[in-house]
Structure to design on (411 residues):
């Protein structure tokens, strides 16, 4: 969980940057992953053509980058945004916080630059750049994109002394998919992060990442805001746990929420709740046979109706080199928090920063696990692919990515 604290501190120290100050980007190049026959050997015809990788970059360095994998060719392409958009002087911008594919478009949330960048999924050329203050995450329905925003919240320190701060409640911005224009905002909790859409409602994870640093409360937010998309108003909140992070909808009525905890006595974890009755929120695995410390969450990804997680048992012991493990959960009764939990005999080292899971189809439950490793957070990280099959779980390939590879999207 060391990386989570570092990101939080970076967020609290930030003042808005702009994308116009260019920073040299490595030239785009193709990397042969493992040859056509082994890079993704067992994928079906319906599998993605491309896997996009958003590298966050380092806060204040204006070096977020977009990579992608040509799945069938087994090629990893770096620096795609710069390559295809040389006239955008500052490149992609400062801190790439989220990425999603909608139709033939790739939407990227560039946090410190205050931009939602839209490019073609076919050739990565720019379609639009939409201004949203300190945006964090994105979700869609048929007509709109919904983007969470910290609304300019920040805390500035001189050493350990707080010298300036702003702590408004967060917002959700609604963007028309056709016009690429902002079509409204609604207030939510403090420093909203993840967002998911299901059955005419938005579920928004409020973290309180800045509020935890400031008087009078010095506390994280612990609420999930629920918004009706028709009226675009908050219709309720549900307490979950402090410092919420990601929200997922499995498309069948279960909402998943991850939390980073408070980096002290409250650990990270995965929660589930029925969309129809959010009050029945439960921690996944609570009271079961699996010990709590085996259910921590450093990063996560929804594939189908299953949430995959990477966690570490000693997440508060920052003086040791952590060993990370992979686990997954499929909850049939969200209100009970019970369901199928699976653990994989795969030990990861380094600093896993983001992940994605790609089902291979018919080969006995085989999945491909993509892991973005941030390394030291300042230099280029790596993206690696593993077979997730309860058996060998071997690493198939690894390639150098951008700085802090943290977010994946399929096309």
């Amino acid at each position: 969980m060391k990386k989570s604290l570092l990101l939080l501190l970076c967020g609290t120290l930030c003042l808005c940057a702009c994308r116009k100050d260019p920073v040299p980007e490595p030239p785009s190049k193709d990397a042969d992953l493992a040859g056509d026959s082994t890079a993704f050997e067992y994928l079906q015809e319906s599998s993605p053509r491309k896997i996009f990788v958003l590298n966050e970059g380092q806060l204040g360095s204006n070096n977020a980058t977009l990579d992608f994998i040509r799945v069938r060719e087994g090629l990893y392409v770096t620096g795609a945004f710069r390559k295809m958009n040389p006239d955008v002087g500052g490149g992609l911008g400062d801190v790439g916080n989220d990425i999603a594919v909608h139709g033939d478009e790739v939407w990227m949330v560039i946090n410190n630059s205050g931009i939602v960048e839209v490019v073609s999924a076919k050739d990565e050329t720019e379609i639009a750049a939409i201004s949203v203050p300190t945006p964090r995450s994105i979700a869609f329905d048929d007509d709109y994109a919904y983007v969470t925003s910290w609304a300019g919240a920040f805390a500035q320190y001189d050493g350990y002394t707080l010298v300036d701060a702003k702590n408004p409640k967060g917002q959700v911005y609604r963007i028309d998919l056709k016009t690429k224009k902002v079509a409204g905002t609604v207030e939510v909790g403090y420093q909203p992060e993840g967002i998911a859409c299901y059955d005419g409602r938005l579920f928004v994870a409020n973290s309180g990442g800045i509020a935890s640093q400031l008087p009078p409360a010095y506390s994280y937010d612990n609420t999930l805001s629920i918004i009706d998309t028709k009226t675009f108003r908050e219709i309720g909140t549900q307490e979950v746990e402090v410092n919420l992070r990601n929200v997922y909808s499995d498309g069948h009525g279960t909402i998943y929420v991850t939390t980073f905890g408070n980096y002290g006595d409250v650990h990270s974890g995965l929660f589930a709740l029925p969309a129809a009755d959010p009050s029945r929120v439960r921690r996944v695995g609570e009271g079961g046979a699996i010990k709590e410390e085996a259910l921590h969450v450093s990063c996560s990804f929804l594939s189908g109706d299953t949430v995959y997680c990477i966690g570490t048992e000693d997440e508060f012991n920052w003086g040791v080199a952590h060993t990370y493990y992979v686990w997954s959960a499929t909850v049939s009764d969200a209100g009970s928090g019970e369901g199928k939990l699976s653990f994989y005999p795969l030990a990861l080292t380094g600093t896993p920063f983001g992940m994605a899971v790609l089902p291979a189809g018919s080969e006995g439950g085989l999945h491909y696990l993509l892991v973005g490793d941030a390394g030291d957070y300042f230099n280029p990280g790596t993206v690696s692919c593993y077979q997730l099959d309860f058996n060998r779980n071997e690493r198939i390939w690894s390639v150098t990515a951008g700085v802090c590879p943290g977010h994946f999207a399929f096309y």
